[in-house]
Amino acid sequence: MAISVTKSGPYFTSGAISFSAMRNTFRLNNPTGTISASELLRNTDLTNTDPILPDATENSDVATATDWKTSQIRDSIKFYNLTQPSGDTNVNLDIDAQTWNGNLGRNIVKKLNIEGTCGSNSTSQSAAQLNQLANNLTIDVSGDIFGCGADATVTGPDGLDGGDALEITGGGNNIKINLQSTGRIYAGGGAGEHGATGSDGQSGTCFDYIFQNVSSGCGFCGDCSSLGSGYTRIGGCNSGSGCNCAGWGWWYGCRQRNLSAAECRKQENTDVAGGTGGAGGDGGRGRGFNFQSGSIAGATGSAGGAFAGCSGFTGTVTAGSQGNTGETGGNGGEWGQSGSNTSNTGDGGDPGAAITPTGFTVTGTVNSSTIKGSY
N or C: which end of the chain has fewer CB within 10 A? Predict the structure, then answer.
């Protein structure tokens, strides 16, 4: 359904035009007594928030200073209104692009009635924008203006920021946002921070044996300790051939024997890293027009890697442990709220603004049910 235009008028399209009728039509704040022609000049003062006969495209025939005539009042208007009907959904509503007939920046009192839904599917674009000069404009909200929620945090630690609901950057005078009790202006929630990587598991110790022989002599076994610390004899030094008895008298005999080489062994330990820590879980997505229901919880982190073991080594002294599970990602933010932090190096995403940046007033039913987010 299209946004419709309604005007208070046109007035005096035919027939006689009396001063009392003009008074009743245009001087609504004081519809008694007489009204002068000077009061019925077209008022072009942009600081006047309630001109008797306002400046409008439809009123361009009415004089502003001199040469005023009653006939100039024919087909004139007092107010200019636009309405987005209930049940209508408008994505990224461009307020200043609507059918204002050149009246947006003039001082005629104007109203935009938001009865349906305005939303955004991109955090870089607000659900509704007013980016041109406007004067005496009220945006009356009985429907919804929903900013975009941030996507889940799948790369980097920082959660993404949510999107704005209503953006007013064109400047002007007397711009109001009036909230009805049924109205909702909600900023998009920020995404949760990505979970930190789990810590690595405890290292294990594997070992290999180093074997080496030490020569033995006539009647003595080789000394394994001569190879250095940690060597012990595990064999060898068995009886062998007779000693060389040259120079000995035969009568002494040769009873000693050469011994075989001493067989030595040393245990050499090697530290082997434990299992790697698991990846942290993705941060939850923020609540928004694009994600109005469903879980905003962060994802569970991945399980850590297993200890590689001592395959290829002789044996195990102590077994290493599996890496720790990655941290669960932070929860996404509800409407107008930041995403949750984790122990990672970043932060949860910021929410968008309900109304941004400045130059407006908020009236009507203003509470935690009708507006969520900064304004």
Answer: N
Taking only the tens place, the pLDDT of each residue in 120-133 is: 999 999 999 999 99
Q: Is the peptide bond before 51 cis (omega within 30 degrees of 0)?
A: no
Q: What is the pLDDT of residues 231-283, one digit of tens each?
A: 999 999 987 666 654 444 444 444 556 789 999 999 999 999 999 999 999 99
Count CB neighbours of 97 within 10 A: 12
Contact between 68 and 36 (Cβ < 8 Å): no
- Whole-angstrom distance, CA of residue 195 vs CA of residue 300: 8
Under 8 Å between Cβ of 120 and 126: yes
Enter the pTM of the model: 0.86
Q: Residue 204 forms beta bridges with which residues?
A: 272
Encoded amino acid at 283, one letter: G
Could you give the count of Cα atoms lying within 13 Å of 117 in the half-sphere of its Cβ? Answer: 15
Residue 202 near residue 320, CB atoms below 8 Å? yes
